[in-house]
Amino acid sequence: MRDEQICRGSVRLSHRRWSAFVLSNSSDDGDHRGDEGRANPRKEEMASSVLVEHRRFEMVQLASGKVRRETRCREPNDDVLDWRVDLCVRNDVDKLYRAITDSSSDPNPHNSMERGLDQVGVQLMTPLVVEVLQKLCFEEKLAFRFFSWAARQENYSHEPQVYNEMIDILSSTKYKVKQFRIICDLLDYMKRKEKNSVPVEVIVNILRQYTEKHLTHLEKFAKKKKIRVNTATEVYALNLLLDALCKCSLVEDAEAMFSKIKNKVKPNSHTFNILFFGWCRVRNPSKGMSILEDMIKMGHTPDNFTYNTAIDTFCKAGMVKEASELLEFMKTKGSTMSSPTAKTYAIMIVALVQNDKMEECFKLLEDMINSGCLPDVSTYKELIEGMCSAGKVEAAYKLLEEMGNKGFPPDVVTYNCFLKVLCDQKNSDEALRLFSKMIEVDCTPSVHTFNMLITMFFEMGDPDGAFETWNEMDKRGCKHNTDTYCLMVDGLFDCNKMEAASFLLEEIVNRGMKLPYQKFDSFLKQLSEIGDLQAIHRLSEHMRKYYNPAMARRFALTQKRKSASLRGK
Known about the structure:
- By secondary structure, the protein is an all-alpha fold.
- Helices cover about 70% and strands about 0% of the residues.
- A two-stranded antiparallel ribbon has the order 1-2.
- Mean pLDDT is about 70; it is low at about 1-85 and about 215-235.
């Protein structure tokens, strides 16, 4: 970098350094001349070689705006020269930056910055301009004014490196929406001035920064037909541009661009997926199916995620018929990689149930079982939740029955999925009905089954139902775990059943159960509110067995403050 950051004055510096070196050698010659007054040939030869090496030391500015030295012999004092050159660049950068910042505080700032820059009298070079822009990276307005001023200077013109730096500053600012027009104008200016082609990285960076925020201002970029940026075509940049257009619902523009460029750039599967999702976004399934067919003809295989997302999109938009056609397309033209999964069937079955197409629903369920796509826990939950949400509880029972008839009887996990949906809906009648069915088919309920019922009853304000469930656990030989005790104590406190809650807390202490830290905190606060000092001390001592004593002391202080407030009432 030190070799690249060098100013025009470096040649003059080097000339003075070499001249001083020659004069020094010449003076030494004079001191050692003979009486004959003849110069020392060895010294003259050295001075001549030094001047030759000096001519080989030239500054060359590349098209990229970077500067390098040509090959030369390195002398011991070159480090001194490099230091002087770097100092020269830094001084010029500081002068320009000071002129810019001083003008920003001027009460009449109009054109004051330009006048201040004119008075600096610095010879501009690409590395120097880039350095100043980098110092102004968070002041996009000042940076753009300096950029415009530099473009008007004699014996200087912006190189692509400077344009890239300016575009990066404008596209990285927090005022992206406002500055986007300037970026478009800047790209258009580069085209009209016949500058070098804009690097593809620049366009990709602009598109990425705007598409991440899903800004619809990309429509300006798409519709601004006068901008034609000549970039090296490659599939990554194409995909990013197509994705940006599709996210702005400009799918027709995206496909038109793809049609023009597909003979120059070989699209990959991601390219087709972008267009396919774009047509799904604007709810045009026929166009989406056409893209899928083209994708398969090109030798690409759509994956399950692509199909499932499209089917889900169609179903949520009420386009069940189109979703069914896509599912049929998967079964007939899909490969092993893209064949329907249990997730695919679950999406379709729920959509059919919600649209009261029960006959088609169970026909599809039969196809799913026959194809070997058995639903897992999450898929079961989606199926049952979708049916119950649509008010089709009987359809959910029939689902369990159909699975059993096909040799896949539901187990306790399946029933718990069903029960979870009913408990969340606070449908106690159906929840108890399902619980009875579990007992009827000899499916032993788990502790999780009872915990869900207890939670439901307390949320409904029915502590008696929770106690009945608690007693049913004892009858069934299902042991109460820590979660069961916590649910009961919390629920009883909320229902103002203080004596029953204190009794269960006493049982927790006697059984030596380790409660979660948050529950200790909650229960101690509840006991402090009712002023049960004995229970507080017992629970605090019990807590010392499992947690830091300092934590117990903190709760003891809390207990004392609560007790004092109670006595003061």
